[in-house]
Write the structure tokens for this entry.
Amino acid sequence: MRKKDWIGRLYRLCIACTALSLGACGGCSLYLRETYDFLGLNEIVSHTFGRNVMWTMLVSFCAAGIHVLAFIPMYDERRGRAYWSTMCVISTLTVVAGGICYGTDVSSRIDYEMFERAISVKYGYDIAVTDIVDEVQGKYECCGVTGNVTAGVHSWGLFKLQSSWYVRVARKLDPIQYVPASCCHEGATTDECQSTHERAIPSYGPPIYPGVNVNPVLYTEGCGDALSSDMSFVGRVIGYLTISVLISTVTGFLSNLVMLVRSLLRLRRRTVSSGGKNNERVVAMGNDRHDADVREA
């Protein structure tokens, strides 16, 4: 009866689990990449956050890709050393890059002053900043950076009070645009959004004086808190992905190491067995030659 290869089965099980883990990591990474414009957020909230997230994802993908290519054990000594060295380097980079987002409070990386400065100076002139600000305001249903309906200097009143876009462009339009269309509910008309014919914000205020109404189609909450909360979630997800890739990398590394040692031991046994047979043949040949010499004598 043939002996079952439990080590081989365990190896295949580890590789299957690793493949599933890497597949899940790849799917989550692609989802984050399609959902969030990290490079765009780099323009308004932090010079480093978006770049760090992208580098973390890139290093994780490199670790996954190299690991997938190394599923088959490296029996050759030279290739085996290259594989071990590469996996050690990639594992280290994965941990370091993941620690950037996972080990640090991501919410503290949201630079509110940078966000406000981007709206004040670049909105309406820099296409990248304009697009990402409009995207953030529409996605989170907010306007500006911080504040609310009553404290609107840095939220819905930011465009009117501090932005170059309002001074050079918006106030010269007919009707005047006190806030971008992305600060209002989808489908709202320009007159409704700007309260052109009503005594309401944003055409009045801030501050809001008695008799000034709240505009029901205007987003009045600042985007900073919602964006900070969402980026904290992204940081945690990136951290979990990094840990998953690292565990998968270590699992595959140890599995391939075990199979390599097993293969080398088998090769050694075959060499010893072959050497023993060769010795027997030499002894036999020597005995035959000795017998022939005796007969000739």
